[in-house]
Batch of 4 targets.
Target 1
Amino acid sequence: MIVLKTPDEIELMRLAGEVVADAHHLIEEMLAPGVTTAELDAAVEALFNERGATPLFKGYPGEVPFPAVSCISVNEEVVHGIPGERTICEGDIVSFDTGCRLNGWCADAAWTYPVGKMDAAKADLLRVGEAALWSSINELPRQATWFEVARIVSQQVSRAGFCLIEDFVGHGIGREMHEDPQVPSVVDGEEAETDFALEPGLVLAIEPMVTAGTPDVVLCDDYWTVETEDFSPCVHFEHSIAMTDDGPVVLTAGVGRPCTTNQG
Ligand code: MG
């Protein structure tokens, strides 16, 4: 069941979104060759503690509970990378995903950051992935239902020569991180009954994942980390967004680099 939020509730979610954005800023400052993903995660946990925010990822139920406050997925890792002893290298692309609950309300955002000099292929991938997120947001007020948005964005990504990952979906967000509805990046006619109206009060975490290779993924033996099957690099861009009478509001605004030329 989709639970719509009031303007006051959306404002509380925006405050949680500010903490998530601050976590991203911290990671951007720290990301450099030689840092380990465990060091990045520890800094974010300290920030959440300091701000009185509850991490949403730590302890998330699975085959083993998720052991960290953020998912850090490098290069061919798609999502759910477990922070650890892996050392970041020049030329890596690092997807950082985290969420917190503040005063009972949640926010969740992911961004893929380049480290140092990046090759042209990865630069293209980042550009197309980020554009997929901004296109999704920009289409929200122009379309009646989510599936219409997803079809437009899927076409843009495939025309650019890239693939959306189909195995993972965005989600409603509110008092819980994962609420109805599911927000698939790729839709087909067979699931039309899961489409939903884009109406004021709807709050979604929209999170396209884009790869240069095939969209097939594999689960690693740590039970969490997901990689592309062909080891192609992958990017992940996610904002928490509220539909309001005045259009979509990005509750995790500030996440990512300010060079978001696709916005607007
Ligand atoms: Mg999410």
Note: The first strand starts at residue 54 and ends at 55.
Target 2
Amino acid sequence: MLDSLYRELILDHYRRPRGSEPIPSPDRRADGQNPLCGDECSVEVRLDGDRIGRISVRARGCSISVASASMLAQEAEGRTRAEAERLEAAVRDLLQGRGRAPGVDLGDLEALEGVAQFPVRVKCALLPWATLREAFEAPAGARRGAAATTEEPAKGGGVR
Ligand code: ZN
């Protein structure tokens, strides 16, 4: 019962992504990709003091990546960077099967809980979050923005 409710919520975000309007001259931006599935994601942030005043998240790819991007846009707006990072940690817990973090209101993101059963899809759901993190970690004013990837770094290091 709960499962089908969550599935509906994911499909609703997929069909009508929230917060996907581009932001003119954003303070932060990054692009990300999940090579495993072919998902792509762009994040733009307009800061309001230390808060995310406006956020735009545009994703192309599977339903899980697009829905997660839409939920991120919906739930992260108005939060400080620290709050957004707490939310990201809670989403990772959920997706990696560690359950719900106490004291964090996940909102619609709760619907992603079932994704934990599909390890291949976990990276799809995490892509928008990795991209947001990259946007914050990139030097401010970086012209082309930063690039995030869900691909694991090659073992043994080395420059690719
Ligand atoms: Zn995907």
Note: Strands lie at 28-34, 39-48, 51-60, 146-149.
Target 3
Amino acid sequence: MIIAVDGPTASGKGTIARALAAHFGLPVLDTGLLYRAVGYQTQLDHGDPDKAADALAACDFPATLLEDPALRYESTGSLASRVSVHPPVRAALFQRQVDFANQPGGAVLDGRDIGTVIAPHADAKLFVTASPEERARRRHAEMLGRGVEVSYEAVLADIHARDARDTGRADAPLLRAADALLLDNTALDRDAAIAAAIAFVEGRVGRSS
Ligand code: C5P
């Protein structure tokens, strides 16, 4: 069984993907981490993330980079969203994601284009979202909890910029697949959102088997 979980930044899609993977006993891939690694490697190489050739050269980043805590930084998320607009970068990361999706037994993947490009044949697709203000509120609280001094306004501005870049790019934009469940968790807590996601997938699997 392949489960595709897409959605904008700070929507809670990673939490939902991990919960689905644990519930159904499937491996999970956070595809954003791959783009974050490319963005961060571009910076380490003193490249320009807005130049396709520089970003493409960073696609053969060492596997150990995926463990680097710096990939989780907000600044790395912005780098990721800049390198991810280049079609050669998306092409370079494509097969790795497709192979993960198609492994025997299935998988859960979360990202921006899983249900539309990487696994259009997924058994269940979810598009997880929340209002920009609610996503900024949660991200801001989480950052303050980690001791990062940042204003709510700055976090909200970054979320708007990331949304605009992710939805506005020509290649594989952030888009809800026609057959994806829209899971807007603006007014839902974590457990309610996870329960809704599990119920949806169970309904899908039951229907297709
Ligand atoms: O999900 P996360 O915030 O870690 O993703 C970082 C950036 O990587 C996103 O803003 C997006 O631009 C890019 N990305 C992408 N396609 C994916 C996953 C992430 O373009 N499948």
Note: The pocket of cytidine-5'-monophosphate is lined by residues 9, 31-32, 35-36, 77, 80-81, 84, 111-113, 162, 166 (CB under 6 Å).
Target 4
Amino acid sequence: MLILVTNDDGVYSPGLRALADAMATLGDAVIVAPDRNRSAVGHALTLEQPLRAEEIEPGIFAVDGTPTDCVNLGIHGLMMQRPDLVVSGINSGSNMGDDITYSGTVSAALEASLMGIPAIAVSLNAKIFSEADLLTTTRFIIVLAQQVVKKGLPADTFLNVNVPSGPCHGVKVTRQGKRRYGQAVIVNEDPRGRKYYWIGGSSVGFEDIPGTDCCAVSRGFISVTPLHTNLTSDSFCETLKNWPVLCDGGVL
Ligand code: MN
């Protein structure tokens, strides 16, 4: 089995190495990851400049691009054959609720699923990883990865895994939750008297909605959310069709 391992925290992050070591117990694990921290770049693809990939150790490539670039380069340039699985992580910090839309970790898995390759994004709800948290995460991902490869996933669908820090009570299949937004931009003054703005200043947590990723992780469960790439709001389609401007004849 051939596995592509990537992340958005960068090629030197401990979570990436732990995940690659875990995947190496299942087959050949090749790392293709950003050469620096590219967290919150979302699904960005680099089109206006060339990319470089440096093999810093055998089977470990550092790319001066985004996580989505890494998946593209890995699959179409650096790996000898198409991987059976793409895993992204282990991210430092959770990727749940609305945060998923910013996540480079999740977007790397999304990119793989667009290419028809089964993919898993893995995040740990801690900034610094304890040995125990890493062990919980890697043990679970090894078993999940085996089942994903064996059973496959539906088209355009991938798995987003979030692991709690501390005691783990089990696993729950969840839905994407909802973040509560607070004062998101900090305004301050630099030493030369000019204003600067810093995004992401305060975190006020998540709505406690039963069945969601954040609800499960906050109660000490591993959350596994199946995500898909089609963003259509099916529930609003029928209502929208009845808007005067969109009805038959409408304004045209
Ligand atoms: Mn990250």
Note: The pocket of manganese (II) ion is lined by residues 8-9, 39, 91-92, 105 (CB under 6 Å).
